[in-house]
Structure formats: C-alpha cells, structure tokens
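[SOLVED] Need 3D model of a two-part complex

Original post:
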Amino acid sequence: MAFFKITLLRSAIGLPRKSSGVLQALGLRKRMRTVYHPVSPQVAGQIMRVKELVDVSEVEEPLSKPEMRQLRKPDPGFYIESAISR
Amino acid sequence: MLSRTIKRSALEGRWLSAPSSVLPPVFLFPQRARLFNSTSSIVDENTVPEPLKRSGISTSDAKNTVPHTQKDGATSASSSPPLPTPTSHNPSVPTTPIADSVRELLPLLSAQTSHYATVHIHARPYLITAGDTLRLPFLMKGVQPGDVLRLNRATNIGSRDYTLQGAPYIDERLFECRARVVGTESEPLRIKEKTKRRQRRVKTVKSKHRFTILKISDLNVKTVEEIEG
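Solution:
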C-alpha cells in the first residue's frame, strides 16, 4: 500500500481560510511537520489545494514519529571496543 | 699620526664586529623560515564534501537517506527503545573495494608518522592527534572510565605533507583511532538568579555540567596490505 509523505514547508499565514483548513484536515499544524496519508483521490485533491506549501513524495510504508526522529539522528561516530567489567 | 691609527683601528673594529652584531641570528633568516611552508600538499580529487543534507525537503534526499534507514532499521526493529547506545561491536563495516586513488596514495600518507585527524562524535568535529586529551562538551552516556572507544568517523586524516579527505567520511577501514575514557570533569557551580518584576521572590537556578574526558591512545593509518590481508 502506497502512502503520500507530505511535509509542510511554508506556512499558510496570509492565505485564505480554506488553505489553512485543508492543512488542518491533513494534520499539518506547523512547518516541517510530516504526515503520511494513503494514496487516494481525496488526499490527492487536498494536496492539490495546498501544493505550493507542501513537499510530497510517495513511500511504501509510513514511519512513526520516533522512527523519523531516529533518521534525523547523526551517527555517534564511536563504539566501545573494550569495556571494563562493571 | 696617532689620530689616524686610532681612526683605522676603530674602522677595523667595526668591520670585525659588524657581521655578528648587525645581522640577525641565523634562525630568523627568511630562507630558513620558508622551509616550513615550501612543501606542497597533495589532496585527493574528491575533496569537496557533500553539502549537509536537509531531510524532508526533496525526494532526492529521501533517496540519499535510504542506506541510513536500512542501518537503523535493524536496531529499531530489534529493540523498542530507540536509544542508540554505544555497541560493543562495529555496527557497520563497508565492504566496497578501496578506490584506486586511495590505494595509490595511501602508502605516502601512512609512511609519514604523526598523523592528525578530524573525527566526528555525534556529528561534531574534533581535531586530534595521538596523545591528545579531549574534553567533550557533554557527558557521554553508557561509558565508564577505562573503556576503550574506537572512533570510526573521520572527515580527514593528514600528516605533514598529505591529507586524505573523505566525502563526507573516510572509509573506516583505512585508519585506526582509539580513545580511552579517562574520567569526567565538572565545571564550577553556576548560580543564576531569576527575578520577575514586582515580585520579591528570587529564584536561583543552579547548573553544574559534567564532561567526559577522552585520551586519544592511538591514531594510525593502515596500509593497503593490512586492510586486505
């Protein structure tokens, strides 16, 4: 099952009420929020309404919030080679 | 007659004393100074590191982060808490063959002793050489004094004449960098007074951060035979 990965890049401040309403319906409350919705004509139409504000890509599986956070995390850059007995 | 001899002797005296007194000492000569900078450095072709990737902006970035997801997927799937505690084994060893340019120039770098490197710990760079004491700006979790850490993310390694630059990181098989956890250090207690307007209450906030001390025990560049043998 395919999902739309939608990220809000620009806020809807100064736009008609309808645009912010569409963002609310999509679950986008603040910038850089990413939501996943199943691919359907309804969601596609919603995206079309706010296409100037969001970044859309199609993915296979939705990621949870901790998983997305894990992806942003940089590499620790070390590992314990030999630990003393604790 | 007498005055002439005095004059001559004075002149000769100046001649004799001039080279030692007028000229600066030998170590200040420009030729000597130039020796330190005259050697040219060789840098690999792929020196320019990729710009820092911004996640979630475009679809190409999603493609770039795919190997990252695969690597982290194993840890997140096996253990529900997503805390990436330092593991006791090497989490990822690349298996791709070494590039020809690296293969060619690595002996030159490894032949010169006393290397430096820029290692990244939690994506922050630290310029180190062997024997350095490194005070991290944070308290490292999950380690105790006496542990030996293997630092495996470096953006460049260099000696006096050569520099190996990674894109963005150097292949971790090419070098060996170990650090021993020496202990922790703490800053003096800081007390900050918090006040609000029209209220007499003064709240004091104390902070006393603790930092992990590492000692770089060894940093050496491997040779091609060691890597493949």
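Edit: Chain A touches chain B through 27 residues (CB under 8 Å).
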